[in-house]
Amino acid sequence: MSRRYFIAGNWKMNKTSSEAAALAQGVVEAVGNVSNVDIAICPTFTSLETVEKIIEGSNVKLGAQNMHFEKSGAFTGEISAAMLRELHCAYVILGHSERRQYFKECDCLINKKVKAAVASSLKPILCVGETLEEREANKTIEVVSTQTKGGLDGLTAEEALKVVIAYEPVWAIGTGKTATPAMAQEVHAEIRKVLAGMFGENVAEKIQILYGGSMKPENADELLAQKDIDGGLIGGAALKADSFAALVNSAVKLA
Asked: Is 134 a catalytic residue?
C-alpha cells in the first residue's frame, strides 16, 4: 500500500498538564522511534506546550482538538491556527462528532476551519460519520458523502492531499460497539470514491482515511488489514500508553 498507516490519539477533555506529561512520556518511550507509521497525540489546549517539549525529537507529532477559522479577533475562548503552529502542532482534529453534536457545528463552518488549517500548514483530520438513527435509516453513505464534500468544498487537489479523513460512526464512539471490519471497509471505500469524484483517483488513492469508532488492541489487526483503512483516530485506548502503543505496533506489523 502506498499510503502510510497513521495512528492518532484524541485525548478529548482528559488529563491535566502533569497527567498529560506522564502519558506523553510513556508514548515516546514505547513508540517514539517508530519510523514507518505516522503517529500523533492530541491533548487539550492547556497541555499542548507541555506535551510538545516531551515529544520533541521523537517521531510522535503533536495535534490539537479544534481551532477557529479566523486568524485573530474577538472570539473569546477560541484558538487560532497561528497559535497552534507556534506550539509546533502538525495536525488539528476538525468536525469531530462531539463538536457537531454538542456545539452544533455544521459542514460550512467546518469547511472554513479546514481551509484555515491548510492555509496555515496544519494538516486537518476531518471527521465524518453517521448516528445510529441515520445508520438504521440506511443513510450512512448519504451522510458521510455529504459531510466529506461539505468539509472539503473549494479545496484544490493539492490542498486535499494535505487533509486526513477520519470515519467515526457516532454510534460506535465510547459505547464499546464497533463496526465490523467489513462494515468499516465499505464506508471507507465509499469515502475514497467521493474523494475520487472531487479530486481524481490519483489524489484519492493518496489520502489517508482513518477509522475512529472504538479501535482497540483487540480489533486493530483485523481493521487495519482492510484495503481502505489507513489507521485509526483513537479515543479511549489513547489514554494509556500501553494500549496506544499496541495499536501503533499493529500498524507497524502491516506497514
From this structure: no
